[in-house]
Write a structure and sequence with these properties.
Distance between the termini: 14 Å
Order of helices and strands: HEEHHH
Largest sheet: 2 strands, antiparallel
Shape: elongated
Number of helices: 4
Strand content: 5-15%
Strand order of the largest sheet: 1-2
Number of domains: 1
Number of strands: 2
Amino acid sequence: MSLAKRVPIFLLRLLALGATVTATVIMVTAHDSAQVLNMTFEAKYTNSPTSKYFVIINAVASGYTLIVIFCPSKISLLRCLLVLDMIVTLLLDSSISANLAIGQVGKYGNAHAGWLPICNQVPKFCDHVTEALIAGFVASLAYFVILLYSFHNVFNLLTVKP
C-alpha cells in the first residue's frame, strides 16, 4: 500500500486512539456523591453494568488501535484488519448506545417505572458521563470513517488487474 493511502488511516487511527483513551479515562474518573434524606450515596461508573461495558470496550479499542498502529501493514492483513475494524466499530456503537440509554434515564428518569432522575443530585458525575460519551462518539465516528476507507482500499485492490 502506498504512503498516500497509509497516512489518512494512520491519522484516523491516532484520532480514534485519543478518543477511546479519553473516553475511558473520563468515565473511570467520574464520581460524585449526594446526600438525600440523611443518606449519602455515591455515583460512579462501577454502579452500572453499561458503564462498565463502555469502559471495557473503549479500553479494548484502545489496545487494538495501538497494536494496529505498530504492526506492519501488509496486503495480506488488509482483509483481517477490515473485519476487526468492523467488529471494533460495532462494539463501540453498542457500548455508546447502551450507555446513552442509561444516561437518558439518569437525566430524565422514567415516570412509568417510578425511576427518578439523578442528575440533579450528582451533576458532576453526569457531566463526566456526557463528556465520555462525546469522546466515545468521536472514536466511533473515526472508526466508521476508517472502515469506509478500508472498504474502499480493499475493493480497489480486488478490482485492479495485475
